[in-house]
Amino acid sequence: MRTAFIQTLNELADRDERVCLIVGDLGYSVIEEFASKHPDQFVNAGVSEQNMIGLAVGMALTGKVVFTYSIGNFGTLRCLEQIRNDVCYHRAEVKVVAVGGGLAYGNLGVTHHASEDVAIMRSLPNMTVVAPGDPVEARLATRAVVALNGPCYLRLGKAGEPVVHAKEPDFALGRAITLLDGSDVTLIASGGMLATSDRVARALTDQGLGVRLISMHTVKPVDRQAITRAATETRYVFTLEEHSVEGGLGGAVAEVMAEIEAPHAPLKRIGLRPEFNTTVGDQTYLKKVHGLDEETVLKTIQQIITRSYGRVG
Amino acid sequence: MISAAKTSHIGSCLSVADILAVLYGSILRVDPKRPGWPERDRLIMSKGHAAAILYAAVAEAGFMPTEALAEYARNGGQLYGHATHWGVPGVEMSSGSLGHGLPVGAGMALTAKRAGANWRVFVVMSDGECDEGSNWEAILFAGHHQLDNLNIVIDYNKIQSLDRVEKTLRLEPLADKLRAFGWEVREVDGHDVHALREAFEALPLAAAKPNAIIAHTVKGKGVSWMEGKVLWHYRAPTPEELETALAEVAAS
Q1: Which of A54, A294, B55, B113 sits at a 20 to 30 Å CA gap from B125?
Q2: What residue numbers bound the domain in which A190 lies?
């Protein structure tokens, strides 16, 4: 995803000199081409995230569209107040980009696990929160984010995520993408969990279940219509995210579903337990620890469906 | 304003009053008729708690009618007790949490420099907010990038929220610290309007260096019983106190 992002940003910067990139001394082997092709649109703020966001705001308030780039928590939580007061309150054209969303930097340690960032960014006024599901969405999201008027948080994975969209889907911020349609269960995914959800959805389909698979790439503003339809047209809604089950995609969907007056489906949030990891593991390992691997997700969904409806399919 | 609204920070306003008067009166290239004029100098009031004096200064400069100042910190108005840009022409940036202004100012200055523009950035800071690490991040950055169009004015009244600066976190030797970060520094009596004007007119002080004007000031300046007193960081003058204070200022 980060490769799709930086390539797209490079192309955008070729055409639009307002597009700038500020990094917090991170992005080795990612940002070099941008930096050499666009020296006047590039800044390395050094290891100083508060300053990085402030610089971005100053540049944005004088006409630039500024992407800040850092690892998960560093570019968001370390400088949260700068993002709230300086970016969001001033509606500055600052696009906060985090790489390593979720457990992408698994074995580097808890400091590098971005597990509450979506919840926190989502609560800020004027902020749009985008977590693309695959490299195709990452490319489309980057273009959309430049065109968006105002602050944005763009949460990316790392490198090497599988492509889920065989062809380029229609993409608009705030409008979910339906990849599969069905009327038994709905899987709503954000970020890198889209690939896992896609495989789980196909396995469930093979078992005879009508599965609706939705990519909720924009977590804020969340697509209320898509959620409401899923909750009233299908019998169970699952959210899948590599983020705490508290306050992220699952929280956003729960908020919408709680206010649906008509009878509607129950919801199960599948995501990270809201706790610090205590064992070392890479992304694949830790996802398993949290039950986010394909096999466990499939089993979890099957158990719930069987318990509720007596059968799968 | 502060007395009527019963808010804090009268001492912080009076220490920076002469600085803002000189900046808005004869230094800043701004046009009250065009608050968004792209070529304007930008003034960021990083010590946002001294909002009342900032609003008064932009009103005196013509950005809004002085009658609007009666709205200060009043329900339903626009003039919050900390500097607010929203709905307030002439205020570049909202502040109130310390240590936010200088990084933003550095970003503006970098943009201007890269564009070859002539406008300048002034960031008015308190001494207490020099405790904030974010300022030192930006001081390091501006020195490295030789932002000679970036100017900070430190209102060095030697008193912060709970106690004197030297008893809280010592800043001295402040000028030497800034010089070591690659800044050109000039120290000035922050209540001598001629000296202030001369210092501001001398900007940029040196080639390829950001500029720091350390303005030695007195908290609560102009009112004998407020001067140098920690109390007046927070207390609002009563109507009677206001009257004697205004009489003192008028007589001086």
Answers
A1: B113
A2: 177-309
